[in-house]
Design brief:
Elements lengths: L1 H39 L6 H23 L7 H4 L3 H33 L3 E2 L4 E2 H5 L1 H21 L14
Antiparallel strand pairs: 1-2
Helix pairs in contact: 1-2, 2-6, 4-6
């Protein structure tokens, strides 16, 4: 169990640093492109497309990380009124549902990528599968985090006092 907790924390830390790096590149590139476009009537070849890729990957990976940090939107008013065991079961079933939906997305996205992923993506000529890979990567990570949270919750190693982070 401790290995699973450590793996969850380490993977989350790595993904958070990756997200920070992608956001930093995203921010710098957007600002640079705006200055170049409106100040110098120029641009960077493929800059807008790279921003799109960075946005897709940050969204996909960020959504998965939010599962482990319990930062997704949720209305838990009625769940919080349940007895402990019913609350625990409801939380596990919710995670299972999220995991199944994301698992289906992984399954169907692989077929989608095999059909359209070989086409060249302009302006770089890269296979579109590199861009489309954000779906199975993000959804696969979401499935992983759901399974980890289910195991830890069922084993009593995950607190369910606060199911999702409350809004400020």
């Amino acid at each position: 169990m401790d290995f699973l907790i450590a793996l969850d924390r380490q993977l989350t830390r790595i993904l958070e640093w990756l997200l920070i790096a992608l956001f930093a590149v995203f921010l710098v590139l957007v600002c640079l492109l705006v200055v170049l476009r409106y100040g110098f009537s120029s641009s960077i070849y493929g800059g807008n497309e790279f921003i799109t890729i960075a946005f897709l990957f940050t969204s996909a990976i960020g959504g998965a990380v939010c599962i482990t940090k319990r930062e997704h939107i949720a209305i838990t008013f009625f769940i919080d009124m349940l007895p402990y065991q019913a609350k625990k079961l409801t939380y596990i079933l919710g995670l299972a549902l999220v995991g199944v939906i994301n698992g289906a997305m992984v399954y169907y996205s692989i077929g989608w990528i095999s059909l359209a992923g070989h086409n060249p993506w302009q302006p770089f000529g890269w296979p579109q599968g590199l861009v489309h890979a954000s779906v199975p990567i993000g959804c696969g990570l979401a499935v992983f985090y759901c399974v980890v949270k289910i195991i830890l919750t069922a084993a009593g190693r995950e607190s369910i006092d606060i199911l999702w982070m409350p809004e400020d």
